[in-house]
Specification:
By secondary structure, this protein is an alpha+beta fold. The strands form two sheets. The protein has a three-stranded antiparallel sheet. It starts with 7 loop residues before the first helix and ends in a 9-residue tail after the last helix. It is globular, with a radius of gyration of 18 Å. The chain contains ten helices and five strands, in the order H-E-E-E-H-H-H-H-E-E-H-H-H-H-H. Strand 4 and strand 5 form a beta hairpin. Helices cover 41% and strands 10% of the residues.
Amino acid sequence: ENFNKLTNEIFKQMVELSVIHMSQDCGFGYLHVDTWIEYVNASMPSLAVPILNQIALLSETAPGLSINILANDHRAGDPEFTKEMFDKVNGTQLVHLALHDLLFSEGDRHHGNVHIDEDGTLMLIDNDSALGVQYGTNFWGRLRGIDSAFLPGTERHGICSRHKTVRVLDYRCYVEGGKIGLNYPPQLVQCMENIVNSTPEELRLKYLIPRQDQAELLRFRAREMLQLGFEDALASALEDERIKYEYQ
């Protein structure tokens, strides 16, 4: 009950669970595998602490394989198969991935934590680097900026775009004029309005967000997306990697 006593491991698990809960409200639930909390009592001799007796976050296995593996032809072994798989990807889903990662301030979305199945459906895993968290951030560390393979202008996007076979995984290829603007799905608009109209305390209780400043960041991001449109909100996020806000 006392968020300040969380271990870093539990902190990351709570971020993961928060993102999944928010995704369901915002229309992005289908992008995630089923995840739940369960009590675990097991013996694992390979661990430093061989007896597990704790609450754990469990999830279904993501279908298919990671984009990272598929994009590296020397491992996948068949460049034509790789191209065929990417050609199956649904453009609307790519738009949703970009919306998802900006709203939830994804900090480490590389192609290793995005799976693709034989139908071209994409699935997100390892969402514990959202809400201002990046690799190495602990419960007491400062929040950082966004970084996602699906958000142009971020480091991850630049790195992933070097693979010529995955350049098609860019939302700008699937929206009129290459811009989303304010053309959001109705469920997402309602979700963002609810976020903006809630207090940080209410958001923390509803979505189990670990830290106060993470809830404040969520409200800030939702407000900017509603007021500025997607591209300008993204530009604003990229301009200020120090996560500086002006709250109303």
